[in-house]
Amino acid sequence: MNTLTKLALGLMGQLKAQPPAGDAQSVVALPPAQTFGGEPLMEALSQRQSQREFRPEPLTPHLLSNLLWAACGVNRPELGGRTAPSAMNAQEVDVYVALPRGLYLYDPKAQDLKLKVARDVRRVTGYQDFVDSAPLDLIFVADHARMKLVPASMRESYASVAAGAMAQNIYLFCASTGVATVVRAWFDRQALTEAMGLSPDHQILLTQTVGYPQGPLQPEPEQSTPR
Ligand SMILES: Cc1cc2nc3c(=O)[nH]c(=O)nc-3n(C[C@H](O)[C@H](O)[C@H](O)COP(=O)(O)O)c2cc1C
After folding, report:
1. 18 alpha carbon – ligand 1 mean position (Å)
2. Which end of the chain is more exposed for a tag (fewer CB within 10 A), N or C?
3. pTM above the 0.90 mark?
4. Which of 52, 31, 37, 55 has its CA nearest to residue 176?
């Protein structure tokens, strides 16, 4: 759907999720994340960029698992530490995963996806047309109930910083694996909040599209072995 149509539907309160493509499983187990290998950091930084043209093919389960772990996975199990920082370690930002078959919540501890809405909400995650057909749109959502120790006036900015760190983790992961991504803030907050069925404690901060870049589909790099 083009941007003008989305803007018009948004004004009428009619920008809605679509029926899902296929049956949505209530829990999708992700393969264990591969937490080693990849491009050296300085090379990934050299290649980091926003891209807005995506092939429609779904990401492989391994790639999705690694990508979500890079965003905010558990990297120090003994402490419950994450790959992205959060003020007072409140871990208040959740990553929702909009797939054609449904909207899922990424659970970093279980390394799985929990079904939240059995609808295709991708179209509602942004005014730009590519979000409808890209295979994956992520939504960063702050849960204000987890920020009781943070002064109320600081909660939104602290959570936005945490979401920005996750988004950059994803940019670097994508640069390192040859996957396309763009972080986005231009979306209809009310329509997306309704489509996701969020409560008043929840605040959508950012969205991010991910997919294979346009052009021939490249084979996924071999899984390397840990050092
Ligand atoms: C907070 C924020 C919001 C953004 N929102 C959008 C957006 O809604 N749509 C979009 O296409 N790009 C969006 N971008 C991506 C920027 O346009 C992009 O980072 C900028 O043009 C620089 O390009 P680069 O990322 O390739 O260096 C956003 C970036 C940030 C940091």
Report:
1. 26
2. C
3. yes
4. 37
